[in-house]
Design a protein that fits this description.
6 strands; 4 helices; 17% strand; single chain; 147 residues
């Protein structure tokens, strides 16, 4: 089965500034550098319904890691129309479920994600633009955001 049809998302309290708003318990792990969807990227509960399309966008642009756990990559990336890039880590391999967090503007890896997205978007036959009309705007916004 195609990866874009299998990927799912599950909220994770580690990357929520206000986890109780998502009916999650506060994160109890180590508090190393974290980014928050709802605080940093202002990607709140109202945006959750957009996540399936964002996951598909990342897969269709080929934004996944070479590290493969079973039949799903360990990491995926996607680009939102706001310009934010989100990194997603595998949470449940059996269900191809991921949790995600925003990539901060000073993260140099964002440039690598953008190069791959641009290449895939512009390569003949690799990305079906009619399947994701927001992809061009998302890439353009991210190129401005991550200068």
């Amino acid at each position: 089965m195609d990866l874009s049809a299998r990927v799912t998302y599950g909220c994770y309290s580690k990357h929520k500034f206000n986890p109780t708003a998502y009916k999650l318990s506060p994160y109890a792990g180590q508090d190393e550098e974290r980014t928050y969807c709802d605080e940093h990227a202002h990607f709140g509960k109202d945006n959750l319904k957009r996540i399936p399309a964002l996951l598909v966008r990342g897969v269709m642009l080929g934004l996944w890691s070479d590290q493969i756990n079973g039949d799903a990559p360990s990491l995926l990336w996607t680009i939102d129309e706001s310009g934010w890039i989100f990194e997603l880590r595998i949470t449940n391999l059996g269900q191809a479920q991921y949790h995600g967090y925003p990539v901060l503007p000073d993260d140099a890896f964002a440039r690598h994600v953008l190069v791959r997205a641009r290449e895939a978007f512009n390569k003949e036959g690799e990305f079906a633009i009619n399947e994701d009309p927001g992809a061009r705007a998302a890439i353009a916004a991210a190129e401005t955001f991550y200068r």
